[in-house]
Specification:
single chain, 4-stranded antiparallel sheet, FUC_metazoa-typ, 2 domains, 7-stranded parallel sheet, TIM Barrel, globular, 31% helix, 14 strands, alpha-L-fucosidase activity, EC 3.2.1.51
């Protein structure tokens, strides 16, 4: 018995010492050595939500305030001149941000049906308005001005009830915050905004809501040194309540994009079209022209379901995740056209999800002959995602002699295939009834010898 106890104590001591040894230092070499939590790569598909005071004017872009007072964009200036009194301030829009139709449970149900595995909400955009009752917001938050409810907290609860992962977008900079204006004027040799607002509010966010994604933004005007990014990330990885599960992106300073961080998104709508050496994400929008909701949006601005599936296929084939953005209205609703796109996506993933979730890259990503075919691999099977119907399809990247059988996901009919003149696989498309398949894109599953 004494020997057993001794062995248990030795094991426990070794475990404790080993665990304590994994502490990340506040420098990029150490922080970048942290393995990316596996759940993120497996998830593949997420929903992005740009929502805030900018949703009230809902005109042109979520950068409305800066377009008005910074860029002096002609369309925005004319919009304000025509519709508002001369002394109207942007801050007054917050009093109209009522979110009276906001039903987070309904949102979460929609995201679940879309096939997404994680959801990222804007907790604070560049306007500085916090979507939670932050102690560091100087009353520029949802509880003091606007809806009088915790928008972040409510959605976090609803999303997790659907067994989806919850994450938060957070902007570092605030365009017109006096502290930031002063720091910028000083050439970022001072960092009052970071010390008294950014850092404490980020810790507050993490401790209150325990997000498994911190999607940082607003980094481009100053380096990671000004933002004190490595110090925050060391705390996040070592001591925060989400230290073992949280993932972060690469927007921690104007010198860090596509260089440092958990996953890289480099730039908006990043889709490099080739295999990358690091895990990456394609954050893109269903409205081609804006991240926030726009009342002037037309049907021609909205991506079709074929556009979405093409973007998804191209992204995961090259090893990325896709984060699909919709902009909710100021009332707290998601436009029917956005709902339709997400539900169409969910229908397709319901049939073809095994080619997406937990998949990996294959030795070929895009077919060598049929360019509208992308490949993934999972559990020893190869999947060819076909983005256009053809009676016959030649899979130029698949050697005929290596194929044991082929199946079309969502279809029970046997797939006939022959050897092409080039020695590749030539598939005869099965007959499909209108109700038998999600006819947007087709996935062939190759069972190899």
């Amino acid at each position: 018995m004494r020997q057993i106890i001794h062995k248990l104590l030795t094991f426990c001591l070794f475990f404790i010492l080993s665990t304590d040894a994994i502490r990340y230092e506040p420098n990029w070499k150490s922080l970048d050595s942290r393995p990316l939590p596996q759940w993120y790569d497996k998830a593949k598909v997420g929903i992005f939500l740009h929502w805030g005071v900018f949703s009230v004017p809902s005109f042109e872009t979520e950068w409305f305030w800066y377009y008005w007072k910074g860029f002096h964009n002609k369309a925005v200036v004319n919009f304000m001149t025509k519709n508002y009194r001369p002394d109207f301030t942007y801050e007054e829009f917050a009093s109209k941000f009522w979110t009276e139709f906001y039903q987070p449970d309904k949102w979460a149900e929609l995201f679940k049906k879309s096939g997404a595995k994680y959801v990222v909400l804007t907790s604070k955009h560049h306007e500085g308005y916090t979507m939670w009752p932050s102690k560091y917001s100087f009353q520029w938050n949802v509880m003091q001005t606007g809806p009088k409810r915790d928008l972040v907290g409510e959605l976090a609860k609803s999303v997790r009830a659907q067994n989806l992962t919850f994450g938060l977008y957070h902007s570092l900079l605030e365009w017109f915050n006096p502290m930031y204006v002063t720091d910028k004027k000083n050439g970022f040799t001072t960092n009052e905004l970071v010390r008294f607002k950014v850092r404490p509010e980020m810790e507050e966010l993490v401790n209150m809501y325990k997000p498994d994604i911190i999607w940082s933004d607003g980094d481009w005007e100053a380096s990671d040194t000004y933002w004190n990014s490595t110090n925050f990330l060391a705390w996040l990885y070592n001591d925060s309540p989400v230290k073992d599960t949280v993932v972060v992106n690469d927007r921690w300073g104007n010198n860090t994009r596509c260089k440092h961080g958990g996953f890289w998104n480099c730039e908006d709508k990043y889709n490099p079209g080739q295999l990358q050496r690091h895990k990456w994400e394609n954050a893109m929008t269903i409205d081609s022209h804006s991240w926030g909701y726009r009342r002037e949006m037309t049907i021609n601005d909205v991506k079709t379901i074929h556009d979405l599936i093409h973007e998804l296929a191209k992204t995961i084939a090259y090893g990325g995740n896709i984060l699909i953005n919709v902009g909710p209205t100021m009332e707290g609703t998601i436009a029917p056209i956005f709902q339709e796109r997400l539900l169409e996506l969910g229908n397709w993933l319901h049939v073809n999800g095994e080619a997406v979730y937990e998949s990996g890259v294959w030795k070929h990503q895009n077919d060598t002959i049929t360019k509208n075919v992308f490949y993934t691999e999972r559990a020893g099977f190869v999947y060819g995602i076909v983005l256009q119907y053809n009676l016959k399809i030649e899979f130029g990247s698949v050697d005929y002699s290596s194929v044991k059988s082929i199946h079309l996901l969502g279809c029970n009919e046997k797939v006939q295939f022959t050897k092409s003149p080039n020695g590749h696989v030539l598939v005869l498309f099965p007959n499909l009834t209108p109700l038998s398949h999600a006819k947007v894109a087709y996935v062939f599953k190759f069972v190899l010898n």
